[in-house]
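Slide 14.
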Amino acid sequence: MSEYKKLTHTIYECKYHIVFCPKYRFKIFTGDIAEYSRQKLYALARQKDNLEVIELNVQSDHVHMIISIAPQYSVSGITGFLKGKLTTILFYLYEKLGKKYWGRHLWSRGFCVSTVGLDEEKIRKYVKYQEKKEREKEQNLFGY
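Slide 15: predicted structure.
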């Protein structure tokens, strides 16, 4: 259970692979913009409690991240927070982006998300093992 995190009434492991792209898949994440975006995404994640960027890859036309999100947050809410805050900062620091994205909308509307978790087969075996373990415990306790 060392991988699991704890809140007051919850034990969880909620990891997600999230991918989001700038509008029109423009290759804007190069040089300083890419490095700054990488650093800022880590910093933005630290602003929220129980949010951790595990892996991050800023490519020229999209961002990949594996992130651990506590159950109190929604994936879409966190993705919107990261995309929104990063947009505001990038438009402020890099004026050339404002000219390229004249509507001040940096990101494509959606994003891709998939869960990163335990292997289904391992979970099935664990559930079956727990049932067997419980029966053995009862037999030892009641002697039948």
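Speaker note: The chain has a mean pLDDT of 88.
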